[in-house]
Amino acid sequence: MSLYIEKAGHGPVPLVLLHGWAMHGGVLAPLVDALADHCTMHVVDLPGHGWSRDCGLPLEPSACAAAIAQATPPALWLGWSLGGLIALTAALEQAQQVRGLAMLCATPKFVRDDSWPWGGDATMVHQLALDLETDYHATIDRFLALEAMGSADPRAELRRLRELAFARGEPELRVLQEGIRILETRDLRAQLPSLRQPSAWIAGRRDRLVHPQAMEWSAQQAHGRYAQIDHAGHAPFFAHADEVAQALQPLLDSFDE
């Protein structure tokens, strides 16, 4: 079985969209609607997630990037959260296919250490990995709660995330564990200055998982544009899709330059 990639929109700019950990492409529907007149989108269900649950590919970023690049035309790529690490990997390794990069609440390194003060708590990430083995559903629910924190209406956003999370079936335990390992170990900071493509780095000011300062620093290293959605948390496309689309506009305009 191959990756599930849904085509949406009718605009002139091709755009690949990648969702975050434990989600599927359907959660990005508000952003797809906001960009429908500007972009023709290729909305991916990552391996083991949604309707790509049985495709058999690993979630490993290089393998994902190569498979998606083979199945889509040259395009801008947008990755949200974990999807951003895959989009960034594609921009570095599949440069002929990735004409521009948008990182939405996503950074080149997720966990905090002495060299990265803006990362997420490493203990929390490791605990998620352990808890997946014993209480799969509760672990995903805790992560959804973290994603909703900081939004203008966290209870409503959490309800929506819960409704959408399993709308295309449950993700494979295997890829959830792979995703946690990627979040724990991946570090692409040193490669940011070598990015050849234009890039946009869009943060939610109230994000409790990906610190806006981490994104601003990354944008500077990549010589990209930084934008911040003031009243948004980790999933700004829910309540602020039009603002995200507006922040993307300079990148969309650059496609034919």
Q: Which features does this protein show?
A:
single chain, 257 residues, alpha/beta, Rossmann fold, seven-stranded mixed sheet, 9 helices, globular
Quick structural overview:
The protein is α/β, with parallel strands linked by helices. The protein has helices at 29-35, 61-71, 82-93, 122-134, 136-148, 154-165, 173-185, 212-221, 241-254; strands spanning 4-8, 13-18, 39-45, 75-80, 98-104, 199-204, 225-229.
Q: What share of residues are in beta strands?
A: 15-25%
Order of helices and strands: EEHEHEHEHHHHEHEH
Structural class: alpha/beta
Count every helix, treating DSSP H or I runs of 4 or more residues as helices: 9
CATH class: Alpha Beta
Overview of the structural elements:
The protein has 257 residues and is an alpha/beta fold. The chain has one domain (4-254): Alpha/Beta hydrolase fold, catalytic domain (Rossmann fold). The protein has 9 helices and 7 strands. The protein has helices at residues 29-35, 61-71, 82-93, 122-134, 136-148, 154-165, 173-185, 212-221, 241-254, and strands at residues 4-8, 13-18, 39-45, 75-80, 98-104, 199-204, 225-229. A 7-stranded mixed sheet has the order 1-3-2-4-5-6-7, with helices on both faces. Strand 4, helix 3 (82-93) and strand 5 form a beta-alpha-beta unit. Helix 2 (61-71) packs across helix 3 (82-93), helix 4 (122-134) packs antiparallel against helix 5 (136-148) and helix 4 (122-134) runs antiparallel to helix 7 (173-185). The longest helix has 14 residues, at 241-254.
Layout of strands and helices, then pairs:
Blueprint: E1 4-8, E2 13-18, H1 29-35, E3 39-45, H2 61-71, E4 75-80, H3 82-93, E5 98-104, H4 122-134, H5 136-148, H6 154-165, H7 173-185, E6 199-204, H8 212-221, E7 225-229, H9 241-254
